[in-house]
Structure formats: C-alpha cells, structure tokens
Amino acid sequence: MELKVDVDPAEAGFDAARLKRIDDHFARYVDNGRLPGWLAVVSRHGKLVHVGSGGQRDVEAGLPVEPDTLWRIFSMTKPITSVAAMILAEEGLLELDDPISQWLPEFASPRVYVKGSALKPLTEPATGPIRVWHLLTHTAGLTYGFHHGHPVDAIYRAAGFEWGTPPGLDLAACSEQWASLPLLFQPGAEWNYSIATDVLGRVVEVVSGQPLDEFFRSRIFDPLGMTDTGFFTTDTDRLAALYIPDPATGGITRNDAFGSLGKSRPTCLSGGGGLVSSAADYWRFTEMLLNGGVLDDVRILSPRTVSLMASNHLPGHVDLEAYGRPLFAEMPFDGHGFGLGFSVLEDPVKARTLASTGEFAWGGAASTAFWVDPDEDITVGFYTQLLPSSTYRLRPQLRQLVYQALVD
Questions:
Q1: Where is the signal peptide (predicted)?
Q2: Which domains does the chain have, with CATH numbers?
Q3: Could you tell me the pLDDT band of residue 84, with boundaries at 50, 70 and 90?
Q4: How much is the pLDDT for 332?
Q5: What does pTM read for this prediction?
Q6: Residue 367 falls in which region: left (phi positive, over 0), alpha (psi -120 to 50) or beta
Q7: β-pairing, 47-58 with 37-44?
C-alpha cells in the first residue's frame, strides 16, 4: 500500500503545525549526525494523519529514506509471534497454562540457578513447569546473553547466544540448547526480558506443524496484506543500512556485520527478533490490533483475545519496576506493566508521559518502535536503524511530540 496522509489532521483532532515538530525534532538528529535516517507514522481513527521522514536509508550510498524503505524490526517481531500463539490458542490447540514440555520435551526438567559463577553454577530443579503464559510474559526465567547482569547471561554468551545464535543451528536446535541452560529464577517468580519469544516461536512451529515463516505468511501476513514482511528480503536496495554510535565522533558508524541480517534466509527463524518489514506493513498490523483483531473485514483474533493480550499480567497489576529485573528492555519500567507480548501503560504519571492508560507497545533493538492507544484510537510507528535502542531517548521524545499535537 502507499504510505501517505489521507485525512486533514484537524479532522482527526491534531494540530498540523504541532505535528511538524516531529519532523523538526528528528531532522536535528540527522543534521548533527546522530541518526542516519528515520520515518514516523501517526494514525487516528484508521486514517494516516502524519507521515514524516528524513535522512538516508544508506548514508554511504546517498540513498534517502523512502515510504517503502525496509527496516530490520528486531524485537517488534515479538508481538507478531505472540499473535501467532494466540491464533493457536483460539483454535484450542494450546492453552496459556499448558507446560511447554508438552511440545518441547527438552524443557521437561528445567534447572534454576542458585549461586556460583558462570563456570561453576549451583542449580536446583524448577518447582514447576515453564508454561505458555510464562513465555508470553517474559516470566519463564530465561534471559539474553547481551544483558551482562547475571552469571546465567554469561552462560548464554559462552554457548554462543549474545546478539544472535550459533552458526548452523535452526530454531529446533536452539531450543534444545536453551533448555540445557539454567533459568535465572523459578518460572513465574520475576520478569526478565529474554529469548522467551523465540522459544514461543518454536512452540508455534510444533503445534502448527509449519515452519515459523510459513505460519506467519499464511495466517498473518497474507491475510493482512503485509507483502513486505518476512525473515529476509530479496529487495535489498530498499533495505536500510544498519548503524551504531561512534563514541569518538558523537555520530554514527556503519555496521555491516549486523547489517547482513535480513539479506538472506536465516538458519534460525527468530520469533523474538528476526523480521524485516516496512512502515506500511507494520501499520496494518497495529491497526488490526487497535480494531480488536480485524482489518478490512479480515479477522485475525477476537476482540476478547486482543483485550487479554493488552492487559497487564504482572501479579497485582504492579509495574515492571516492581516485578522486573532492572536490565535493558525495549521500554521504561516505571508505570508500565506487561501483557501477552506488549508493554502496557498502567500509570502515565509514574511513567511521566502524556500517553494514555492502556497503551500497549514495544520496540526493536535498532531503535524502531510502535504503540497502540485504544483510548484515543491512535497508532504510531517509528523506524530507523541505530543499534542499540538505548542510545537516545527517542521513544519518550516521540510520545511527547505526538500527544502535544493532539488538541481535541
């Protein structure tokens, strides 16, 4: 689809002059060399209110960001995998309380870290099984090697799991490797951002009998008309280059090692971070969620399922600051709970944001982000390729800029 504004902002409750502040703000990031290029999409009542962009999708080649530029969305893959799991739940093929060992026998007897070093950890048996719900909510006790906050993180790195997976291992083999590593904590005891959604992707494969890419395509992408989304693209001219900060200059430097991701089919289909997409495609996905699981008369999920996913599942409706480990994640912890695949805004005042209670959202490692605001009937997407996403405070800045322009 063509990505262009199709309603007067005033008709949708926005001040056009104030919306321009989005473009002015991110243009400064490009002008001073802190971002290569960017694209922002604001939608309300199903209409595109603002589409802004600037800079280059490939600085060295002098190629500008275009509406159809392709982006590595990294962890914005997670909500798609979560939707895939809930499709299977709606069909009665799995339940949220099911032990995942029902499909992944390698997880039949997980062990939990107690104390010790990464080289000589002391572990104990898990007191209960890892359940599907634990994977969806990042409460399984799994982790990421890139956290650098716990001996188990170091065990992951030693096994080849830091920013990717060991060469030659497909998702099934990676799942077996993850199952052999100790958990950080007893399943359900805490929240920790992790490879849980990758394991969930493997559950989707086994339950459905399809490789993850085929399930995504047949059950989500094709029905929604998401023609640009997949684990790689052959249209590499449209794929933005990937950059990292350059501490020496305060600018950015190209990283072709990570930039090779998305240019060929990966051995491991990462449901936690493997997809390439366009702003138009992901807008359709977020609109489906905003509409309660349906878009253009194509129903992916029921409204009750989407509502359950967008509810805070942390015990007692606490926020991530109270229940999570204070490590890197794609959203702030204060005032935010977590649902089935998304952060959920519980307390805008505590989060110090203009956004609405009930907003659900997530982002990707290369500084992409989206949110869905059911209260105001808004979806927003932001796209760039700067790794890691913690480099700048792009997401809270974008929220401030969007909501200060909402005047109705």
A1: none
A2: 71-235+252-381 (3.40.710.10)
A3: very high
A4: 77
A5: 0.97
A6: left
A7: antiparallel
